[in-house]
Amino acid sequence: MREKATAQSVAEAEEVEYGPLGPGHAPAKDPLKGVRGVMSGTMMMESICFYLILTVILRVDNGIHWTPVNWGYITVVATAMLILSFLQFTRWAIAADVIIQVFALIGIFVHPSVAIIAFIFIAVWAYLFYLRKNLIERMKRGLLTTQHM
């Protein structure tokens, strides 16, 4: 009896609860395209911030952190972010976004200011992923206005 109740509750959990207007149709314009644009802009801003970190490691502490390894690492990570900002339409972009955040966080070994910027952008990316997930769920439930026009 318990197995039957569990199977029934699993089936109810998998059932999609549609909005009051029903599932609707596919939106005329892809809403995820806008999300990808925001993600691209965010990655572009992050790359600019990382390029600006070069001036921080040059000027703070009389340039003690200005070594070829340190400025090379920051330059490579910032350039990878810049390139990735133009590739947000690819299937692997989200995985690459997460991986580049790990490399940004590793920058704490270059200078503590890198970790501060990395934590700020990790929070921004977590919020963007939450918004993306929420948009996909709303599309499945038919809650977007453009699905009923």
Topology diagram in text:
Blueprint: H1 2-14, H2 31-59, H3 68-85, H4 93-106, H5 112-141
Helix pairs in contact: 2-3, 2-5, 3-4, 4-5
Could you characterize the architecture of this molecule?
The protein has 149 residues and is mainly α. It has one domain (30-144). Helices cover 70% and strands 0% of the residues. The protein contains 5 helices and no strands. Helix 2 (31-59) runs antiparallel to helix 3 and helix 2 (31-59) packs antiparallel against helix 5. The mean pLDDT is 85.
Protein traits:
mainly alpha; single chain; 5 helices
Number of helices: 5
Gross morphology is elongated
Order of helices and strands: HHHHH
Whole-number tally of structural domains:
1
Task: Report low-confidence residues grouped into runs of 5 or more.
Answer: none
Mean pLDDT figure: 85
Helix content: 55-70%
Quaternary structure: single chain
Distance between the termini: 46 Å
Amount of beta strand: under 5%
Count of strand segments: 0
Q: What summary fits the major beta sheet? A: none
- Given the helix and strand composition, which structural class is it? mainly alpha
Radius of gyration in whole Å, from Cα? 21 Å
